[in-house]
Amino acid sequence: MEDGEEARKRYFHPTKQVVDAISKDRPHWTPLSYDKYLQQVGPDGAMFVGNPDQVAEKLIKMIEELGLNRFMLHLPLGSMPHEDVLKAIELFGKEVAPKVRAYFADK
Questions:
Q1: pLDDT tens across 19-35, in order?
Q2: Cα(47)–Cα(19) distance, rounded to whole angstroms?
Q3: First vs last C-alpha separation in the chain
Q4: Cα–Cα distance between 46 and 49 in angstroms, integer?
Q5: Fewer CB within 10 A of the terminal residue: the chain, N end or C end?
């Protein structure tokens, strides 16, 4: 299984590149610090980064708490290595999505 800590470390710099570029044009945005990033990928943050079990659990929690009926996956395509983008899509499709679907199948 993919290591959640390693996933968080690998995803920081591609995310920082995107956020920092956007923050130059938006007055209320600031460059992304590692501490701010860790808050966003943590249990109550808006980013889904970790191993497939961690991502599935966080997604299930968010769906239940907010009453959602859809989810849109976004990856920083321009700043992430292509192999990492493909791996993330594969893990989401083969491991995360089936766990989430199975959880909600009987609800």
A1: 999 999 999 999 999 99
A2: 13
A3: 27
A4: 10
A5: C
